[in-house]
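Hi C.,

You asked whether I'd gotten around to modeling the 423-residue construct. I have! Everything is below, sequence then structure, no commentary in between.
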Amino acid sequence: MSIKQLIPAILLLPAISLFAQQDTLSAAYKSNSVKNFSKVIGWNTGEMPKAPEGFTVNKFADGLDNPRKIYVLPNGDILIAEAATIKTEAMKIGADIVGAGKSENKHPSVNRITLLRDTNGDGVAEVHETYIDELKQPFGMLLLGDKLYIANTDALLRYDYKPGETKMTSRPEKIMDLQAGKHNRHWTRNLIASQDGEKILIGVESGTNVGEDGMTNEIMRANILEINKDGSGLKVYASGTRNPVGLAWAPGTNTLWAAVNERDELGDHLVPDYFTSIKQGGFYGWPYSYWGQHVDNRVKGSPRPDLVAKAIVPDISLGNHVAPLGMIFYTHNQFPSRYHDGAFIAEHGSWNSSVLQGYKVVFIPFNNGKPTGKPEDFLTGFIADLDKKKVHGRPVDIAMLADGSILVSDDVSNTIWRIKANK
């Protein structure tokens, strides 16, 4: 029988036999999949996260309501997107709600952008004003010239920006719709500019875990999209990235990196969340496979061996169920030199592991645009009692201020933390 004659028979074989990988990943369902939601107890007076020796942590702002994305404007004003998972019948699993707010504390979504301002440079925000309200689960923010872009879960809006205003006075212009629909379990939409500032990249998350509600629900989702500044020219920059929340360009390179949440309900030992360079036009597996060619047999509908065959193996495993969200590359010199150009990643924390995972900020050293080490703990102390599943808070996003200190949002304790190096 010729190779040409063999091809139809080969394509009928189970996909896993075509694409078996030799690596150290555990088998699916090696342990039972669990729903293990944390119990948020908040921070008592004087309590705060722990940074390495040589750093100081202080409370930059509190009294917020589900603070998530942080965006620093050129004049030093800080925008905070406040939003939460919205409970819908389509998102229920038993009595639990699946979404970005996976804990026993569930708040309504206030759907606003708050402006913070540190007027005297003491590392504490004295101004705290509602900047934009009546939004729909806002997350990504981006200033290009005099235009401020806000990514609602279902649309990209554009405003005329005036420096110094504590309340937005212009009316929004909707420049494009974003897929949300009935199944919108993963609702955040992050924004980043291309390096020349002429394009906008949008991280759009999957609607479901593994396409269980049908792939028609996932059109233009689990992708990093590219558009022109006016919303035209829509392209898929990269695909198969289930939840590409953190996006940033590695300093001194033309390489985009992403922090990505992977799929759930295969047990404690799968699937690794990851941090990876993004190849334009690349496919990263979701939903048909994970970590390269590991086929996920739960996906409904026709298998896609063509996509599985070209799925890219991510660069760095962050561990299973740690839920990486925001990330930055550190481009200031206020921190010690070993941190320069390295990546900080906020791990929001697990709900699908029998032992709590994540709930910290990790650091990955870089040199010449390449990682030079494994993730290491940087900001910890969010877990109060591991056995009793109690946590003080959950880190979401990271931003760097002009003085080189960094901010970390803590959504369930409604706090923004500031970390600086002691000099």
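If it helps when you're writing up: The two ends are 74 Å apart (CA to CA).

Thanks,
B.
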